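$ ./design --mode recover --in tokens.txt
reading tokens...
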């Protein structure tokens, strides 16, 4: 199954409708905070509590998710696979790619929650990793594409500092 277009709005809406606790990371989180770069996937970190993973499994079923492998027939997510792995789980869905992570760069849902920001993203209010958290994860991954993203994140962090130092104009 390959979608014709990437629809992050539909992916996020399905997760929210199923009350999955997650934090958006990667390019979408950067985009929501004004430091984005082109992306063709939704990256999330999930709360690993059993009830939340069960809700995620329901959402993945609604999204018609398959593991992003060449295996035929496609491998669909199930409880054993979803709950048993600590590594990234990469899915193709009817709306595009969804990467579900539990511990990216040593971060967890709990650690990212500490300074996550609520942001409007494709019509939904979602929790996104802060610029500082995105920087930590990018530095930890240290791939060429991550090093390129660091510059954009640093510029946005500097701009946020400038924005917070400005006082409102008076009439």
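writing sequence...
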């Amino acid at each position: 199954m390959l979608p014709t277009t990437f629809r992050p709005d539909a992916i996020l809406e399905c997760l929210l409708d199923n009350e999955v606790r997650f934090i958006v990371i990667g390019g979408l989180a950067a985009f929501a905070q004004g430091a984005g770069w082109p992306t063709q996937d939704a990256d999330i970190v999930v709360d690993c509590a059993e009830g939340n993973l069960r809700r995620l499994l329901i959402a993945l079923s609604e999204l018609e998710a398959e593991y992003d492998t060449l295996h035929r027939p496609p491998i669909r997510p199930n409880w054993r696979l979803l709950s048993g792995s600590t590594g990234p789980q990469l899915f193709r869905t009817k709306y595009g790619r969804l990467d579900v992570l539990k511990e990216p760069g040593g971060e967890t849902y709990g650690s990212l929650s500490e300074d996550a920001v609520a942001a409007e993203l494709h019509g939904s209010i979602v929790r996104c990793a802060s610029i500082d958290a995105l920087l930590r994860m990018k530095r930890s991954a240290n791939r060429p594409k991550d090093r390129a993203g660091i510059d954009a994140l640093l510029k946005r962090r500097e701009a946020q500092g400038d924005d917070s130092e400005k006082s409102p104009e008076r009439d």
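exit 0
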